[in-house]
């Protein structure tokens, strides 16, 4: 162990220093992970609680708000006229042409059929959170008869699609299923 | 004593340094700072303690993100951390065992100071700041232990806060004030949580002063002789001390990990996995292990007020230790009699710890009394008398002499005077 | 460095001895009650030691005992049905766990009429309690409160004594709880000296602190049917339910011990690298 010894073998010494430094960096990286991961949703939140709605009491034209994973979900029993209005819209007119429906493939176009419940076209189920900055839009308001977000004036139509205003996307359709004609399970 | 920084910035760094010389400060205190070259591994515990403080604060802050300081929810929120939060079990076991590791390290650090006379002039303020840190650590640990709201949490809080009821006249009023009610309850839990979060940052502040004082007077070393020739007797803090501290720290973390991953509940109490019940006291309540010596002193005295005073006195006596030890020689290395008494004191402290874990029955009570007596006798009688009467071994002239095996020729008394000027 | 080395050696040995003695203060493990206690015999557990894992089959048997025998009085309120199929647990499939959940009635509500109602359990639910509150539980059990099983395996212990408790650090013995639970279930006996219970409705048990326990012997040989060929004896039942309860109390043990091994191996390598780096740097000084 002398200085002369060091001078003759610089590569071995450099390797030792590099390896020690690398081990310290790797250790610090792995140590940091639990501190970061703990802020993600915990196991009970991920267990995806489901919400159930009795839809038999929802009259035609009525919107009901239910809570799912801490957020409002709108369940709307649309009138025939409202469905017709939504169907009449050309895809080309829409700022967001995608259906945003978790029950079907992600690249489906935003037709009313792709937005509404399958086989029950009067039912529209959307997450009631404006895609702009997260406010809850007011039902059956705005220029297109769907929703109007009070915060920054985003207008949604009767299929929950963004038509005007700063919001970039259609209101998302959460995973849901009807059991018979009366029970709706969200999640 | 401060190492003269060789930090000579250029360009943007110089522009910044002219306005806020923080890099230069870090350089002078953590890079260029001269460290006696003969320090042994007991001198690495300061670094280990700094690491433990940071580790406890970091794990504590993330635990606080999931903890609920409310009597009906506290226990469940801790269990939620253990079961549902990502890596919650790891963070909580790190924090709970970290408290014990913190105390293991601080006790080694304190006993190192006692052995090598690190409390003697000119390091009295450094020592007193250390005792203050120790006191704050105890307060923090005690309040932290209350938070899981298990049976030991609750009854520990009840017993310790009741200590203050021993104060004549105002005792009951003070305890009611501490509790915010007529028993340990939700207001108590809330304020303990707030203080448990606050105190570590106060500790960090005093640690800053502790290090400042250390860097002002310079480190003691195993010979107890002050540095005379910086060029020959010291090495720069970085890379020498940093690497040595880092190696010791990794060994300490391995020890820590053993407990966290394999015996995480070894240092805890089974009763604390039972939710607090204000109507039932566990059969055998004991504080955490690091409080046991003081708990034994408390119970050794047959009077309530006397026990409380003696317990606080056991810590108070540490504050005046620099003036109780009259010896001119610092390090126990050159004090054969002191060495013997040091180990008797250490063994007695361990004995007190063991007695603290025993039920308050004979023969433990009598042994506790003798042991308590010896604790104070050591500080108040042995140290002052020993310093005046002990025949010390010759002290080396300098660290260089000691390290390079130079002949120690000067008797102890002759070096005492220059040493005090160090 | 010779001088410093000897100092390290001498002081090191002495301080190490002090530290070991210092740990003697740790024998704080409280017994359940003061007075005469009989130490539960240590069992062999699949989950002890650094490589210990829960035996999924044993946990499933323990769960069967819990469901058929214990669940009518003892809650398991911190465990969720989803835990049954999670890593390191009893190893049920998700569908099995869901089926178990659906076998339980869970209170939910209030519904639109403002009333609480019962529905089949879901994976996200926790095990429902057998009694709505402690008073109801006591009323139904002659004044005794059947403790919740969720943490019991960590909440029960007995004093290990000196110097065993020091060796426990090295052997990683952490199974006081399961040992005690097994001993309790197999410890029902006639009173040693023919003592009478201090009040009616208490039962003698060798290992229960104070010996008189409100719970009558809860399980007999052959009471729970095993389909995997494991002997259906009280001794085996005791082991299986104790293992299950240990899992309920410490569900992440597998992750903990697995992570620990990786961490210790890393620290060994990192420590060795640091040691040689330190020696290399200091070699210029010595």
**Rg of chain C, alpha carbons:** 25 Å
Strand proportion of chain C: under 5%
Query: What is the level-2 CATH architecture name of the domain at 49-77 and 147-269 in chain C?
Result: Orthogonal Bundle
Number of DSSP-assigned strands of chain C: 4
State the fourth-level CATH superfamily of the domain at 49-77 and 147-269 in chain C. Answer: Cytochrome c-like domain
In CATH terms, what is the fold-level topology of the domain at 49-77 and 147-269 in chain C? Cytochrome Bc1 Complex, Chain D, domain 2
What is the CA–CA distance across the termini of chain C? Answer: 7 Å
Low-confidence stretches of chain C: 1-35
Q: Helix content range of the residues of chain A, please?
A: 25-40%
Order of helices and strands of chain C: HHHEEHHHHEEHH
Helix content of chain C: 40-55%
Largest sheet of chain A: 4 strands, antiparallel
User: Low-confidence runs of chain A (pLDDT<50, min 5 residues)?
Assistant: 1-8
Mean pLDDT of chain A: 89
What fraction of the residues of chain A are assigned to beta strands by DSSP? 15-25%
Give a count of the beta strands of chain A, DSSP E runs of length 2 or more.
10
* Largest interface (C-beta under 8 Å): B-C, 70 and 64 residues
Protein described:
- The complex is a heterotrimer of chains A (187), B (422) and C (286).
- In chain A, 27% of the residues lie in helices and 22% in strands.
- With 187 residues, chain A is an alpha+beta fold.
- In chain A, strands 5-6-7-8 form a 4-stranded antiparallel β-sheet, with no helix packed on it. A 3-stranded antiparallel β-sheet of chain A has the order 1-10-9, with no helix packed on it.
- The model of chain B is unreliable at 407-422 (pLDDT under 50).
- Chain B is mainly alpha-helical.
- Chain B has 2 domains: 33-226 and 234-266, Cytochrome Bc1 Complex, Chain C (Up-down Bundle); 288-398, Helix Hairpins, CATH 1.10.287.
- With 286 residues, chain C is mainly alpha-helical.
- In chain C, the strands form 2 sheets. A two-stranded antiparallel ribbon of chain C has the order 1-2.
- Chain C starts with a helix and ends with a helix.
- Chains in contact: A-B, A-C, B-C.
- At the B-C interface, helix 4, helix 5, helix 11 and helix 15 of B face helix 1 and helix 9 of C.
């Amino acid at each position: 162990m002398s200085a002369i010894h060091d001078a003759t073998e610089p590569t071995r010494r450099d390797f030792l220093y590099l390896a020690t430094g690398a081990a310290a960096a790797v250790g610090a990286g792995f140590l940091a992970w639990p501190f970061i991961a703990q802020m993600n949703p915990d196991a009970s939140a991920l267990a995806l609680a489901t919400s159930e709605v009795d839809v038999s009491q929802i009259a035609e034209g009525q919107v009901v708000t239910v809570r799912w994973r801490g957020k409002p979900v709108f369940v709307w029993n649309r009138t025939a006229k409202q469905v017709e209005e939504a169907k009449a819209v050309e895809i080309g007119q829409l700022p967001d042409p995608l259906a945003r429906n978790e029950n079907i493939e992600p690249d489906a176009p935003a037709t009313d059929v792709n937005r509404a419940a399958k086989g029950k076209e009067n039912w529209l189920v959307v997450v009631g959170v404006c895609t702009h900055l997260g406010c809850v839009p007011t039902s059956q308001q705005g220029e297109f008869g769907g929703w109007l977000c009070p915060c920054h004036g985003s207008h949604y139509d009767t299929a929950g699609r963004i038509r005007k205003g700063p919001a970039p996307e259609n209101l998302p359709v959460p995973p849901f299923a009807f059991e018979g004609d009366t029970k709706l399970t969200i999640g | 004593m401060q190492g003269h920084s060789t930090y000579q910035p250029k360009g943007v760094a110089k522009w910044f340094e002219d306005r806020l010389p923080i890099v230069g400060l870090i350089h002078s205190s953590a890079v260029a700072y001269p460290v006696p070259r003969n320090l042994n591994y007991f001198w690495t515990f300061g670094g280990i303690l700094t690491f433990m403080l940071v580790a406890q604060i970091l794990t504590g802050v993330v635990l606080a993100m999931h903890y609920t300081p409310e009597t009906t929810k506290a226990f469940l929120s801790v269990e939620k951390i253990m079961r549902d939060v990502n890596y919650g079990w790891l963070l909580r076991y790190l924090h709970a065992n970290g408290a014990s590791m913190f105390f293991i390290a601080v006790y080694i650090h304190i006993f190192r100071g006692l052995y090598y006379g690190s409390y003697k002039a000119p390091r009295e303020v450094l020592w007193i700041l250390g005792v203050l840190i120790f006191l704050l650590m105890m307060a923090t640990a005690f309040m932290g232990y209350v938070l899981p709201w298990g049976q030991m949490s609750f009854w520990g809080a009840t017993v310790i806060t009741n200590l203050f009821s021993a104060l004549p006249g105002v005792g009951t009023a003070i305890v009611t004030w501490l509790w915010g009610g007529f028993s340990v309850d939700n207001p108590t839990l809330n304020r303990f949580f707030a203080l448990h979060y606050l105190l570590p940052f106060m500790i960090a502040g005093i640690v800053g002063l502790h290090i400042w004082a250390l860097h002002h007077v310079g480190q003691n070393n195993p010979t107890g002789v002050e540095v005379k020739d910086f060029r020959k007797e010291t090495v720069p803090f970085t890379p020498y001390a940093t690497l040595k501290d880092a190696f010791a720290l990794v060994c300490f973390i391995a020890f820590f990990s053993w407990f966290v991953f394999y015996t995480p509940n070894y240092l805890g109490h089974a009763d604390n996995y039972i939710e607090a019940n204000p109507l039932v006291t566990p059969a055998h309540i004991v504080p955490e292990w690091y409080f046991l010596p003081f708990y034994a002193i408390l119970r050794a005295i047959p009077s309530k007020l006397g026990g409380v005073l003696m317990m606080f006195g056991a810590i108070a006596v540490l504050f005046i230790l620099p003036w109780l030890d009259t010896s001119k020689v610092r390090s126990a290395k050159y004090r054969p009699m002191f060495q013997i008494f040091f180990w008797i004191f250490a063994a007695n402290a361990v004995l007190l710890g063991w007695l603290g874990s025993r039920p308050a029955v004979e023969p433990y009570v009598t042994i506790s009394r003798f042991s308590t007596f010896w604790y104070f006798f050591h500080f108040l009688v042995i140290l002052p008398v020993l310093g005046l009467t002990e025949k010390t071994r010759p002290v080396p002239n300098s660290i260089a002499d000691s390290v390079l095996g130079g002949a120690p020729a000067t008797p102890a008394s002759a070096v005492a005077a220059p040493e005090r000027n160090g | 460095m010779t001088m410093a080395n000897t100092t390290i050696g001498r002081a090191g040995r002495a301080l190490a001895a002090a530290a070991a003695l210092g740990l003697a203060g740790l024998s704080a493990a409280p017994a359940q009650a003061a007075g005469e206690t009989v130490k539960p015999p240590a069992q062999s557990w699949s989950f002890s030691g650094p490589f210990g894992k829960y035996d999924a089959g044993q946990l499933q048997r323990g769960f069967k005992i819990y469901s058929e025998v214990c669940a009518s009085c003892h809650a398991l309120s911190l465990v969720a049905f989803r835990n049954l199929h999670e890593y390191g647990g009893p190893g049920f499939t998700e569908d099995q766990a869901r089926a178990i959940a659906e076998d339980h009635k869970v209170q939910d509500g209030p519904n639109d009429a403002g009333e609480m109602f019962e529905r089949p359990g879901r994976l996200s639910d926790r095990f429902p309690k057998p009694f709505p509150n402690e008073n109801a539980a006591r009323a139904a059990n002659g004044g005794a409160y059947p403790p919740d099983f969720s943490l019991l395996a960590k909440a029960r212990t007995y004093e290990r004594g000196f110097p065993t408790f020091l060796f426990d650090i090295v052997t990683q013995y952490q199974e006081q709880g399961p040992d005690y639970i097994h001993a309790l279930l197999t410890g029902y006996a006639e009173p040693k000296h023919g003592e009478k219970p201090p009040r009616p409705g208490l039962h003698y048990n060798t290992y229960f602190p104070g010996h008189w326990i409100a719970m009558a012997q809860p399980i007999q040989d052959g009471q729970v049917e095993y389909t995997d060929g494991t002997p259906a004896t009280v001794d085996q039942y005791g082991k299986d339910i104790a293992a299950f309860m240990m899992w309920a109390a410490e569900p992440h043990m597998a992750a903990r011990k697995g992570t620990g091994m990786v961490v210790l191996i890393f620290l060994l390598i990192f420590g060795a690298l640091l040691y040689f780096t330190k020696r290399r740097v200091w070699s210029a000084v010595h």
